[in-house]
Write a structure and sequence with these properties.
Number of domains of chain B: 2
Largest sheet of chain A: 5 strands, parallel
Strand order of the largest sheet of chain B: 1-5-4-3
Radius of gyration of chain A: 19 Å
CATH class of the domain at 111-247 in chain A: Alpha Beta
Distance between the termini of chain B: 36 Å
CATH class of the largest domain in chain B: Mainly Alpha
Shape of chain A: globular
CATH topology of the domain at 111-247 in chain A: Rossmann fold
Largest sheet of chain B: 4 strands, antiparallel
Oligomer: heterodimer
Chain lengths: 252, 504
């Protein structure tokens, strides 16, 4: 028996990614989109029309990553206008910064709106309570993966905790189903101040495919201040890690 | 009188006019007898608005000869309720409860028409999550434990209420509906088939490939074009990769719950390799964007085939080392064996499907009984069956299925030369009018069944989704009866059912 375990350990080897911030994902991954204006708009109009979450505007050309599900179909329709790069670092501190404009070369992360107490209180340790309110389980699994043997975000003092009383903030996933709205509110209010609110995944940021569903109730987001917006369907663990790290970094 | 239209899972869509509209009493009498035979189980049963009030559709699967039996009925306007099939065969319970919740149809003698998912379009808006009618027991020595809707881990919400005598669970009731997003309404909001595909992918994000394949096959049955054999092959690879990844995840989750860190971290690493393989193929770790109707945006290339073979060979070897060690580990076996029993007859009674049913020695596997796509033409699938009906059986099924799926992937891709010329998806194909189309896919949890009805212009006007979890949640409730409450987590992980797939 002990030999069996030794064998597993040997095959397992070292799994953790030594530097979480210099990883380049596979070319296939669809992250930050590069947008280019063209004189003719036919391709783009087709792309905007088929986009399931109406994330694209044509006049002027913009793409809202908070709505985008990164399916890549618009790139097929309008390859001259839209090209998804494998840049996974997509976090933003303001909702409107997720709207990408033509010619923009990198995501915007505006540190000026980050509250100074975040670095002060949570710079060394940050425990989060995750609440899924209509999340489709893929995003929950990706958040779970941030603490796994590969990403091991716990090495920087960031983890998930069971009780909101032990938490320093809340991570919201899912479009906020009406049946979950009250529980979400209660959970958020059970977390002691100071606290942060992270909205994770395009479905949570904008409602995604369910933005207009009568079964969804998004009033929660009108009531409370959001510190970090993370797009993606689902958000890649490294996107979450990078966003949280920037949020709690000391300002230079 | 003919009660059923008989078809199978590879035939094209059925004209609604061909489905017999029968007398409910006759259908009821036939089902009363028929469903006692374990070769039959209900795949879907739903009602839809009709000029005469409501029209009901019922889909029964015959596992022995691969037939699909479809029937329909329109109750007389003055009918006061329908005789409940649940009273005879428990497997009908979620379907009758749903119809009661949505339309207020009384099912006479139904044991308990409690709400199913508190959907936004339910008939009785007074009935809310907070007024869920939990089962109650009286007794000085009993206590209740409520868990949820928010759980301790990073998982979806659902409320569990245990009635315990000391540490022993007498009854577990699972109240769901917190995840209800209105999937079935949103999917027909407009005719954008890309949007419909993406909604299918989001029904249960951990089964994105399974549900998207179910949607794609359903739409393709309504279309006229033939589907390339190569596309069928690649979809099979995607489905099996998803199964491998999720079974490994659950092996790790079971290890976590008994504090066995070695297996946990080994599985975390192996699952990462598997889902990163999927990501290297289509750009998404869960296979979202992989499956599209009539074609694909991500045909396999030789380089991708080589990557899959390399990674899955490695995953298979390492997982097998783990598997051999698990089967000899006394401390693990002591926790998992004889825990959470769901005997075969019980599994059949509640209509259990998929991997959980196979762990209770019930042969429910769409890949073998109602194959479609590559499973129907090239791959002769033999289901893994386990007879101990406990948590260990459910783990052992996974242990074997990972190897089996890995072998399917490797054997199929060995010598496979992709033409890389698969057609692009089509989102504007003309669909058959006035038809009923269904699809059956064996996702990693089990039987996924989608059903759609089209109008006289070929637009989808009704879309019904069934995730295997709809059948199997009751299995979990039964498994924990008389177990210690501390064994609930391992039972829960051994089923790993979907909340959003159930709540829609």
């Amino acid at each position: 028996m002990i030999f069996g375990k030794a064998k597993i350990l040997r095959s397992h080897g070292w799994q953790y990614i030594p530097d979480l911030y210099s990883v380049t994902l596979t070319e296939e991954f669809r992250g930050f989109p590069l947008l280019t204006e063209t004189d003719d708009k036919q391709d783009l109009e087709r792309a905007a029309k088929i986009c399931p979450t109406k994330a694209i505007t044509t006049e002027p050309l913009t793409l809202d990553m908070g709505r985008c599900l990164f399916c890549g179909e618009c790139q097929k329709c309008a390859p001259r206008n839209i090209k998804f790069t494998n840049e996974h670092r997509l976090a933003a501190t303001r909702r409107e910064d997720l709207i990408v404009e033509a010619g923009q070369t990198a995501p915007k992360f505006d540190t000026s709106v980050v509250r100074p107490e975040i670095a002060k209180y949570f710079g060394k340790a940050l425990q989060l309570r995750e609440v899924s309110a209509g999340g489709d389980a893929s995003i929950e699994m990706e958040l779970g993966a941030t603490g796994n043997v590969n990403f091991d975000f716990g090495r920087y003092g960031v983890g998930f905790t069971a009780s909101p009383r032990h938490a320093d903030g809340l991570v919201l996933t899912g479009p906020i189903s009406a049946n979950m709205a009250e529980a979400l509110d209660i959970c958020y209010n059970s977390i002691a101040e100071p606290k942060i609110l992270v909205v994770c995944g395009s479905e949570a940021v904008s409602g995604g495919l369910y933005a207009d569903s009568p079964a969804v109730d998004r009033k929660f987001l009108d009531k409370y201040h959001v510190d970090l917006w993370l797009p993606g369907a689902p958000t890649h663990p490294l996107c979450f890690i990078e966003g949280i790290t920037k949020l709690r970094a000391k300002k230079k | 009188m003919k009660l059923y239209y008989i078809t199978n899972n590879t035939a094209s869509a059925v004209k609604i006019a061909d489905i017999p509209v029968v007398d409910y009493t006759e259908l009821y009498n036939d089902l009363a007898e028929r469903m006692t035979n374990s070769r039959y189980h209900v795949a879907h049963y739903f009602a839809t608005e009709h000029e005469m009030g409501l029209k009901f559709y019922l889909i029964i699967l015959d596992d022995e000869c691969g037939e699909v039996l479809i029937s329909s009925f329109i109750p007389d306007y003055y009918t006061r309720g329908l005789a409940s099939l649940t009273a005879l065969h428990a497997q009908f319970h979620p379907f009758e409860r749903e119809m009661y919740e949505l339309y207020g149809i009384p099912f006479n003698n139904h044991p308990w028409l409690k709400p199913l998912r508190f959907s936004h379009d339910r008939r009785n808006r007074e009935s809310t999550m907070d007024s869920y009618p939990f089962y109650q027991m009286e007794g000085d020595e009993l206590h209740e434990v409520n868990v949820g809707p928010i759980h301790a881990g990073i998982i979806e919400p659902g409320a569990f209420r245990f009635i315990c005598s000391g540490e022993q669970v007498l009854h577990l009731e699972i109240a769901l509906g917190y995840q209800h997003r209105g999937v079935e309404g949103e999917i027909i909001r407009d005719d954008n088939k890309l949007r419909q595909t993406l909604i299918a992918e989001s029904i249960a994000g951990d089964t994105a490939v399974g549900h998207a394949t179910a949607y794609a096959e359903l739409v393709e049955k309504l279309g006229e074009e033939r589907i390339d054999e190569e596309l069928k092959l690649e979809r099979m690879i995607a489905l099996e990769l998803e199964r491998i990844a999720m079974h490994i995840a659950d092996t790790g989750a079971l290890a976590t719950d008994i504090g066995f860190q070695l297996y946990q971290v080994a599985c975390e690493a192996l699952r990462t390799v598997t889902i990163n393989t999927t990501q290297a193929w289509c750009g998404n770790r869960f296979g979202k964007s992989m499956i599209r109707p009539f074609g694909t945006n991500h045909p396999l290339t030789q380089a991708k085939v080589d990557t899959i073979i390399k990674n899955i060979t490695d995953v298979r070897r390492r997982y097998n080392e783990l598997r051999e060690d698990i089967l000899q580990d006394n401390t693990l076996l002591a926790r998992f064996e004889q825990c959470g029993l769901v005997p075969t007859e019980e599994m059949q009674r509640i209509g259990g499907v998929g991997m959980a049913a196979r762990s209770s020695n019930l042969k429910r596997d769409i890949r073998a009984t109602h194959p479609s796509g590559y499973y129907a033409t090239e791959l002769k699938h033999e289901p893994v069956l386990k007879s101990h009906c406990d948590v260990m059986s459910r783990l052992a099924t996974r242990l074997d299925e990972v190897l089996q799926s890995a072998d399917y992937v490797l054997n199929t891709l060995k010598g496979y030369k992709p033409t890389e010329k698969l057609r692009a998806p089509q989102y504007d194909a003309k669909l058959q009018a006035d038809a009923l189309s269904f699809s059956l896919i064996e996702g990693w949890r089990g039987e996924i069944c989608h059903v759609a009805l089209t109008d006289n212009e070929g637009r989808i006007t009704k879309y019904k989704v069934k995730d295997p979890s709809v059948h199997n949640w009751l299995g979990l409730a039964i498994a924990v009866r008389s177990e210690g409450i501390s064994d609930f987590p391992i039972n829960n992980k051994s089923f790993n059912l979907s909340y959003c797939g159930h709540d829609l």
